[in-house]
Amino acid sequence: MARDKLITVRIEGEKRDAFNQLAKSQNTDTASLLYDFINQCLAGTIDIGIVTGKKQGIDSIDTDRIDKLETTTQRLDERLGIITKRLNDWIEAVDDRLSDCDQGLSEKIFSLDHRLKALSMQLDSQQIDSIDSIDTTSQQIDSIDSIDTTSQQIDTPKTQKAIAERLGLKSPTTLNRWIKSGIPEPYQSRIQIVDRGGKKKIEWIS
Does the predicted TM-score (pTM) go above 0.90? Predict the structure, then answer.
């Protein structure tokens, strides 16, 4: 094995002291730091061209790597452009779909509102017709009462058949049912239930 050789380097005193401090800050000494530097330069882990100043700035970067980086960047830009276009198309399609849905919903709401108004008018009309019908029925009853009162003044019916005919009933048997269930309200002012010798019957109110 070849014997180690000594390398002597002449350097300004201030720089020597500063380099010694640098070595100490890295927990080593001057000789060991120089030894490691030489080994890394020989191993290629340190670009000696940068240290000697022969490669500076952009010149120290591999041209092939720059070309590859530019190509990769261009591909990324193209891919990003495609993705951006697809995203914009998708957003535009969704916006159009939302606009169509909003228009369709507005039309349905308008149609429903129109139908509700028509239904409300129909219900109001039916209520008016119902009120008119009730008034007509009331007038008819009042008219019947008036006629019956006039007839009563002329001739008060005595038999069940005559009472039924005067009330406009089809059969006297209806009076028998009223004896058990009670006289309906519209007729209570004209007829009454009385007990004759333990037998109930309907008589005209005189």
Answer: no
